[in-house]
Amino acid sequence: MTVNSIGVVGAGQMGNGIAHVMALAGFNVVLNDISEDALKRAIDLIERNMDRQVSREKITQSERDQAMARIITTQDLPQVAQTDLIIEAATEQEVIKQKIFDSLLPHLSDNTILTSNTSSISITRLASRTDRPEKFMGFHFMNPVPVMQLVELIRGIATDKETYETCLGVVEKLGKTAASAEDFPAFIVNRILMPMINEAVYTLYEGVGNVNSIDQSMKLGANHPMGPLELADFIGLDTCLAIMNVLHDGLADTKYRPCPLLTKYVEAGWLGRKTQRGFYDYRGETPVPTR
Ligand code: CAA
Which atom of ligand 1 is nearest to the CA of 143? Predict the structure, then answer.
């Protein structure tokens, strides 16, 4: 199947990055959000990120202008339903994702492929509640989307070969690399990454180190580009907690229990960069550790 247009549902952290790379790769993009403000912020951010790519000579001004012209925004979900491939990138809550797919279903054309950018929720379960489990997949980008090379492609139990190959073709057109993962809790990247982040929070909770020493240890001692606590703030502590809960519930193993300190930060509304406070406080000029 040929894909020309992409629908992106959710214009947050992941949605705007997905719209950015899809438009640059030549796809027509319909970007949807329930909030007009979120759509405006997403377009501003995409423009700024593309301008940065122009100034670093990664893309030309004309490529930037053509890509921006390929993105349209809408608060009207049925408008997204007319695209060839839909990527749901709403918040990591199954009931919200479910509602989005329910609202899309009556408006879809027969061939539209449905995908979710979920970082951990069962693709098979999401697919089973639609009218097209064979045309449903996980299409999981990493943050920041324009920079990270990997896309995880997750097949549900019913996903057919054509759907997988079509999605693989889209990833190739983006110039990114696909990793094929089976549909088990948190797939590959988060199955490995989140327990590491959770363990870093335990290390903080038990007083083995403080925010600075833990992040510095992993940056300088393991050559990670960001320390685990800095990375948790970057991803969002609510997302990290949601993924740990999916691992804990789905695999029923106590080794995945979320650290109580992670839960406490989320309960405080200290969700990381997006709320300006998490393991670091971002309200000043430079981030200050909160512990
Ligand atoms: N859009 C476009 N370009 C961007 C960008 C964005 N949002 N953010 C950064 N960049 C570009 C910069 O312009 C810069 O480009 P050049 O190489 O051309 O100069 C390059 O990326 C590096 O950026 P910086 O110099 O500003 O900063 P840095 O060297 O510290 O790198 C980083 C920033 C790429 C984010 C790096 O710190 C990093 O790789 N961190 C780890 C990120 C990571 O692990 N992500 C995965 C999270 S897990 C996930 O996403 C899955 C999930 O489900 C939770």
Answer: 50
For residue 236, pLDDT over 90 is answered with: yes
Question: Measured from the CB, is residue 52 less than 6 Å from ligand 1?
Answer: yes
Q: At what angle do helices 13-24 and 61-69 cross, to 10 degrees?
A: 120
Q: What is the mean pLDDT of residues 130-150?
A: 97
Averaged confidence pLDDT in the chain: 97
Give phi and psi for 86, each to the nearest 5: -110, 130
Instruction: Verify whether ligand 1 is closer than 6 Å to residue 235 (CB atom).
Output: yes
pTM of the model: 0.94
Choose which residue among 45, 53, 147, 196 to substitute to test ligand 1 binding: the one with the highest number of ligand atoms within 8 A of its C-beta. 147
Residue 17 has pLDDT above 90, yes or no: yes
pLDDT per residue over 115-128, tens digit each?
999 998 999 999 99
pLDDT value, residue 1: 85
pLDDT in the model for residue 160: 97
